[in-house]
Design brief:
Elements lengths: L1 H10 L3 H28 L27 H21 L3 H21 L2 H18 L4 H14 L2 H8 L7 H4 L1 H13 L5
Length: 192
């Protein structure tokens, strides 16, 4: 991501370059999202290494599009969905606005099908920051939209959200030893 940022800053010189980059990002978002929708339509087996089967009964398989892991796919979506929203808002023509809106919509549907809790939290945080920077007067409306959105979520998505702070979730518990090993590795001085 940092390398992409350096390339973008070094190559984008005009407004046309930026809007062209944003439009291609929207097209990429649509292609990846349609691949995920196709996966869901074909049917995906639930991978027990991705989901705690006891806490997430009835949850369908997690989509991953062109990536090998649903969390990686969700991270890419997390980067591209805000670009699509920005493109929708800054486009002057109807085609750009439609492309931004359409890619945002299919990207959010694909994000929901990844069942990636951390990316959902990241997308919600990005939305809050976006509203704060764009127009602070929209914060009450944003809260209302978020509450209505939570009420309209499918049961499998809502149940997955409820497992974020559940310490008996094996998906969450499996990460604590990794965090512990990372902290030990960071705190140890390097030896020659």
């Amino acid at each position: 991501c940092m390398l992409c940022m350096v390339v973008i800053v070094c190559t984008v010189e005009t407004w046309q370059h930026l809007t062209r980059l944003m439009s291609f990002s929207c097209v990429a978002l649509v292609v990846m999202s349609f691949a995920a929708l196709y996966q869901r339509a074909q049917g995906i087996q639930v991978n027990p290494s991705f989901v705690d089967m006891n806490l997430n009964k009835g949850m369908p398989g997690r989509v991953w599009s062109f990536y090998e892991n649903p969390n990686t796919f969700a991270e890419v979506l997390l980067l591209l969905i805000p670009v699509a929203v920005a493109y929708m808002l800054c486009s002057k023509g109807w085609f750009g606005r439609f492309l931004g809106l359409f890619s945002t919509g299919v990207g959010c549907v694909a994000m929901a099908m990844t069942y990636s809790r951390a990316s959902w939290v990241g997308l919600a945080f990005a939305a809050v920051v976006f509203v704060l920077l764009w127009n602070r007067k929209l914060i009450p409306a944003g809260i209302l939209v978020a509450l209505v959105g939570l009420a309209l979520l499918p049961d499998t998505v809502f149940n997955r959200i409820l497992t974020i702070f559940n310490t008996s979730d094996t998906s969450t518990n499996s990460r604590f030893p990794l965090y512990y090993l990372s902290l030990i590795h960071i705190s140890e001085p390097t030896r020659p």
